[in-house]
Design brief:
The protein is of the alpha+beta class. The protein has a single domain, classed as hypothetical protein PF0899 fold, CATH 3.30.2320. Helices cover about 25% and strands about 40% of the residues. Strands 2-1-8 form a 3-stranded mixed β-sheet, with helices on one face. It starts with a helix and ends with a strand. It binds zinc ion (ZN).
Length: about 110
Amino acid sequence: MHEIAVANRIIEEAKRQKEDVRALKVEVGELAEISAKEVEEALKQMVDWEVEVGFVESKIKCSCGFEGRARIVDRGHGYCVFNCPDCGASGKSMSVLEGGEIKIVGVG
Ligand SMILES: [Zn+2]
């Protein structure tokens, strides 16, 4: 249950930021290992806080010059494989500018 581990990390971090958490806002990138929906469901099962999960579209910069949304090649439970829609490169030839992570944007 990978999303439980991810949700646990988010919950621990939220508790570090505020002692008595009531509301939590999280952003899940398109290229993160877990989808926004999975994160939301896991969080709602684990805490009774007001949980809001937003989705962030990806943005990559490739060595070929392409800059924009990544192409998702394969997505499964706990992983996401993507490449450059222009030249097909993946991995080290590109950098993820946006949408590559799961982060807390608000604790209330
Ligand atoms: Zn490229």
